[in-house]
Amino acid sequence: KEVKHRDTDGMTRLSDVDSNKHLGKGVYSISTAEEMVKLSEMVNSGKISSGSEFVLADDIDLSGIDWVPIGLNNAFSSGFDGNGYTISNLKCGEEGDESYRGLFGVINDGVIKNLGIENAEVSGELHVGLLAGAVYNSKIENCYASGRVIGVKDVGGLIGGAYAQDPNILSDITYCHTDAAVKIISEKVPSERVENGYAGAFIGYSRANISDCYAEGSIESSTPKTVYTG
Predict the structure, then answer these.
(1) Are 142 and 174 in contact (CB under 8 A)?
(2) Could you tell me which residues come within 8 angstroms of residue 223 by beta carbon, excluding any fewer than 6 positions away?
(3) What separation, in Å, do the N-terminal and C-terminal C-alpha atoms of the chain show?
(4) Geometric angle at alpha carbon 164, from 163 and 166, rounded to 5°
(5) By CB count within 10 A, which of 20, 126, 130, 189 is most buried?
(6) What distance in Å separates the CA atoms of residue 183 and residue 222, rounded to the nearest whole number?
(7) In a 10 Å sphere around its CB, with 0-12 CB exposed, 13-18 middle and 19+ buried, how is residue 33 labelled?
(8) What is the pLDDT of residue 107?
(9) Do the Cβ atoms of 197 and 226 come closer than 8 Å?
């Protein structure tokens, strides 16, 4: 869906926020790679209140950054509006190493919208996707992702897995698409840790309401174990 850029001039820049203090509810603009790193650090250290919103004010290039997912130690439970801009050259993780890999690690009760991810490379073990490793009770709208994803179980072009802690509360994923090369492996992981794998050009494992979405790309498996693709 076409996005009209929001005016971010009146928003507090995340670079002006004291990262040592707990950030209260509000709307904050992000325009640099350094501010993206700061967001990751603050979320992962528990400094971000749920209900905050972060809005991109420009395209962001993450080249040269060993990315630590937003919501790795503490789930991301706020809003993130890409505002029609893109995040490019994201690189995160290594094959068969670590879990919850992507731009976001875990999103729980969050809203992600109007975001493009281009030329990303994300690798890990469980729950691996270009946008997010795992999503719970959230809304993902008007996002796209392109690049390469490698993982072992619950591996997807956009999201590794969408899960439901309550079967009556599902995430909503709408107007999204992917163009990603997805590969699922198991050679580096002991057999007792992974019994089967789920991989998808769009999403690996899904308990979500998905509508008006599509996927282009490929799925490759090097594992002798059972692999469910879709």
Answers:
(1) yes
(2) 152, 184, 185, 186, 187, 197
(3) 24
(4) 170
(5) 130
(6) 8
(7) middle
(8) 97
(9) yes
Using alpha carbons, select from 55, 47, 77 the residue that is nearest to residue 171.
Answer: 77
Q: What does the block give as tokens for 115?
A: 């975001």
Q: Which two tokens stand for residue 192?
A: 């007792």
> How do residues 116-159 score in pLDDT, each as one tens digit?
999 999 999 899 999 999 999 999 999 999 999 999 889 999 99
Exposed e or buried b per residue across 182-207, where buried means at least 16 C-beta atoms within 10 angstroms of its C-beta: bbbbbeebeeeebeebbbbbbbbbbe
Amino acid letter, residue 109: D
Q: What is the DSSP letter of 210?
A: E
User: In angstroms, how far is CA 203 from the centroid of its own chain?
Assistant: 11
pTM above 0.90, yes or no: yes
Q: What is the per-residue burial (b if ≥16 Cβ within 10 Å, else e) of 107-119?
A: bbbbbbbbbbbbb
What residues contact 109, with CB distance under 8 A and at least 6 apart? 50, 75, 77, 136, 137, 138
